[in-house]
Amino acid sequence: xxxxxxxxxxxLTIIACLSLFFVFNSASAKVSGSxxxxxxxxxxxxxxxxxxxxxxxxLANDCVGCHSATSGxxxxxxxxxxPIVYNIAEPSFNDAKGLAGGxxxxxxxxxxxxxxxxxSIPGMPxxxxxxxxxxxxxxxVAPDPVDPTCGNCHVQIDDCTSCHKPAHHADDSATVxxxxxGWYRFLKSGxxxxxxxxxxxxxxxxxxxxxxxxxxxxxxKGGVLGVHGVDxxxxxxxxxxxxxxxxxxxxxxxxxxxxxxxxYALPEDTDKEYYLYNTPDGTNIGYYNPxxxxxxxxxxxxxxxxxxxTPGTDQVFCLSCHRPHGTEYKDILRWNYDGMIAGxxxxxxxxxxxxxxxKDG
Length: 361
Known about the structure:
By secondary structure, this protein is largely without helices or strands. It has a domain at about 130-360. The chain is built from six helices and nine strands. The protein has helices spanning about 1-25, 65, 105-110, 140, 235-240, 245-250; strands at about 45, 50, 70, 85, 200-205, 220, 265, 295, 315. The strands form four sheets. A three-stranded mixed beta sheet has the order 5-6-8, with no helix packed on it. The chain has a two-stranded antiparallel sheet with strand order 1-2. It has a two-stranded parallel ribbon with strand order 3-4. A hairpin with a 2-residue loop joins strand 1 and strand 2 (about 50). The chain is globular, with a radius of gyration of 23 Å.
């Protein structure tokens, strides 16, 4: 009996070791390094609590703690490698003064119009609005089975999980990141019990567009007109709160538009005034410009980011004009709207004029 027990114990030990091996080696998770960079076993260090309250999954810090900096550096935390989306000091990097999504510095320091009011960020002002601009009413969406009553819920953003559902140990090494990788930039609401079609798909720039040009940038999934909650596009995700700014029902179907078109392809008719996206010479279509990105309705043929913009296929979408976290410009625009002066005298070759080339000076 003693020998049998020893054999049984040895077998259990081998199984346990193999189980640990497969847990840590079955997938190539993107998060690497010391576990202590992110986790604490007892929320204690040097006899003092790390946080006033313990955080789920034994995290040593919350989202804001890991993704913020006291300086103006907008790259990433030296210890955790987390990209910085909120700076205490004024952001100091590149044309957006922040990474691809922008920076919450501006809404904290300039006011409600300059970003999304994520209430868990220290110093964040309460949203002056009682509901999201363009929010769908129950009458708008019923009897849509995907999101029948979302318009009655999305009146404020309590914390980062209102938009993101962190999955830091997911293997996001695929070119197009989807559900297996934790969704593109973790864009799947962590607050929903009825997520319908899930999250967002896309190609992730490895440094979150700290450095970017025509060949190096995020690639965004385009949407399908008339479809909500299932096409895994960036614009459809935004439409969860801002649906009245989307689609034919609220926007119109052609010029003159009721609202700026969204999820519509750039015109392929050479006679259309907006055919020459980012034109360098007024005759030829230019390369992809990260200041006014386009969305691709099908990313399956992409192996990396592309400089080519294809009229008739590639789309105008929410992030063509906006950054979701915050910018130094009102309405979280990517550029100074007041500097867009048709016929010249303004910020020529930038902003609106990347698409509206015939209006440029």
